[in-house]
Amino acid sequence: MTLYRHVQFEVPWFPGEKRQIWSIEAKVEFDAKGESVEAVLALPLTQRGYTRIHESTASLAYGLSFVNDQDNPRAIWTKRTADGHQEMYYKVDFLVDPKAADIYQPKMPDTPFTEYPEPYFTAANHLSKQAEEVSADAYSFTRELIKALTGDTASKSQNTGLILDYKPKNRLVVDLLNNADVPARIVRGLQLEDGRRRQGITEYIQVFKDENDWQIFDLATGIQGRPDNTLLWEYNGNSLLEVVGGKDSQVTFSMLLVEQSAQSAVAPKISEADFLNFSIDSLPLEEQALFKGILLIPIGVLIVVLLRVLVGLKTSGTFMPVLIAMAFMQTSLMTGLIGFLLVVGTGLVIRGYLSHLNLLLVSRISAVIITVIGIISIFSVMSFKVGLTEGLKITFFPMIILSWTIERMSVLWEEEGPKEVVMQGGGSLLVAVLAFLAMNNEYVRHLTFNFMGIQFIVLGVILILGNYTGYRLLELRRFKPLADKEG
C-alpha cells in the first residue's frame, strides 16, 4: 500500500519536497459587434509528462460552462449583448509529472481528396511522388514531404516554390498526406518557457498509421515526436478559438514555472477515487485533523512495547505514557511536564488524606476525579491571572487517566513504598517523553498521515516483539556480580 501510494500518486517520502508546476494563462481577445456573443476555447487535458491539477477563469459579466469531453474539451463564454473590445482569461496549472500519460486517444481523421487547379495540381503530385520514392511508411513519407518543403531544398525546386505560393505550408502538408491516404491533421501545442508573455501557439502535424499509432511532426524541421517542454493544447484537429458575434479574435499565452510543496502539488492526484488509494485526504478536513493525531498512537504504542519488552522499564499503567505523550503534543513538552508533576503531586497529597476516610473504591476514585478537575481549574485560573497563558494548556491532560494514575501511585506508595513510586512514575515520564519525541517528529507525522500501510508495518513489528522471551536490558544487572567475580 505504501509503495503504491508513492509510485502511483507520487506522495513524497519526505516532508518539504518540492514539485514543479507550470502555471499557464490564456488571454482571449476580440471585438464584439454589439450582438450576442459566444466564445469557445479548446482546453488541454492531462497528457504525457504533465498532469492537470487546477483550472480557473476570469471574465466580466459572461456566462461560463466547461465541456469535459475527451474528444473536444472546451470552455464556452456566452453573453446576450456585448460591444467593443472584450477580454477573458483562462488559467490552468500543470504538474510536471514524468509518470503522467495521455488520458485521451485522438480519433483517426478521414482522408478527403483535395484537387488543386493547374498547374498547382501537377506540382503537388510531382512533389508527393518524389517524397514517396524515398520513404517506407507513413512517418518517413511525412518527414520527406516536410523536408522537401523546407529550407534549401525548397529553394531549388520550381514545383515547391509554385505550390507554396498557392497554399500555406501547414495546410499543404495535410492535403498531400490525405491525398496519399495517410490520415493527418493540424494540432496545436504550446512551447513552455519560464517567464514568457503573449506567446502564440505552435502548429504541428499529427499523422496516423492506425487508430492507436500516431506521431507528431514539427513543421519547421520535420522532426518526429513531441518536442521537449511542449504541451499539446488542442490535439483533435478542432479550432483553437471560435467566436460568434465578434471579429479580430486572438489567443495569447503567458506562463510561469513555480515550485510548490509536493504535498500540495499532488493533492488533486491523491484525492482520485481508487480501490487501492486508502487515503485520509478523501475525508472532510475536520476528520482529517482528528485522524492526524489518532494515526500517531501506534507509534507511541511501539515505543512502549520496545521499552517494556526489551529494556524492562516499569510504568504506571501499560499505555498511560502514550496518553500523556498525546497531551504533551498539545501543550509542548516543558509545559506538559510541569503541569503533569503539579497535578499528580498535588493529587497524591489530597489522596493521602482521602485514605484516612476509609472510603469505598468507587467513591474514592470519584473523589480523586473531582479533585483533579478542581486542581486543573485552579492552576488554569491562577496562571491566567499572572499572565502565564501556557498554563491554560493543562486542560488537555486526560483527567480520568490522571485520576487513575494518582490512585495507583497512592496504593503503590502504601504497599511498596516511595522508591517503587519514583521508579514507576519516573519510568512513565521517561516513556512518555520518548513517545512524544517519536510522535512529534515531522518525518513520522508525514509518513503516518500519508501512508496507511505504515500502520500494518508497526503492527508487524509489535507482533514480532510479542514473541520475545529473552532477558530485558535492565535485568542484566543481576549478572554483574558474576562478571566481577570472573574479573
TrEMBL record:
UniProt domain 7 transmembrane helices usually fused to an inactive transglutaminase: residue ranges: 239-482
Keyword Disulfide bond found: no
Domain Inactive transglutaminase fused to 7 transmembrane helices: 4-164
A Pfam family of this chain: 7TM_transglut
Record InterPro entries: 7TM_transglut (IPR025840), Transglut_i_TM (IPR025838)
Alphabetical UniProt keywords: Membrane, Transmembrane, Transmembrane helix
Annotated transmembrane regions: 289-311, 323-350, 357-379, 391-409, 421-439, 451-471
The name this protein goes by in its record: Inactive transglutaminase family protein
Organism whose genome encodes this protein: Agarivorans aestuarii
